[in-house]
Amino acid sequence: MILYTPMSEMDIFPESEAEMSKRHCVSHNGKQLYVEELNDGSYQLLQVLSSDPNDFMDENYTPGTILR
User: Fold this and answer.
1) Would you call 24 helix, strand, or coil by DSSP?
2) Are 65 and 29 in contact (CB under 8 A)?
3) Which of the four, 10, 22, 40, 44, has the lowest number of CB atoms within 10 Å?
4) What burial class does residue 33 get, using C-beta atoms within 10 Å of its C-beta: 0-12 exposed, 13-18 middle, 19+ buried?
5) What ranges make up the beta strands (E) of the chain?
6) How buried is residue 23: exposed, middle or buried, by Cβ count under 10 Å (0-12/13-18/19+)?
7) 13 pLDDT above the threshold of 70
8) Do 36 and 23 contact (CB within 8 A), yes or no?
C-alpha cells in the first residue's frame, strides 16, 4: 500500500508512549539530530535536523548510525 500524503509517518501510524519517551533532539558536534535511545545507552540516529545540505552528505550522520 502506498500513501501519498504530506503528513509524517508518525501522524498516520502513532507510536506508543514508551517508544516516544526514548526519542530526543540532541546536539552532536554542532549538528542537531533526532535520535532514539537504545537499551545499552547508545543512540541511533533517526534524522538530521539541518538547513545545510552538506550536513546530509556527511557519512557519519547517515540514518541508522549508532552514536555513543
Assistant:
1) strand
2) no
3) 40
4) buried
5) 23-28, 31-37, 43-49, 66-67
6) middle
7) yes
8) yes
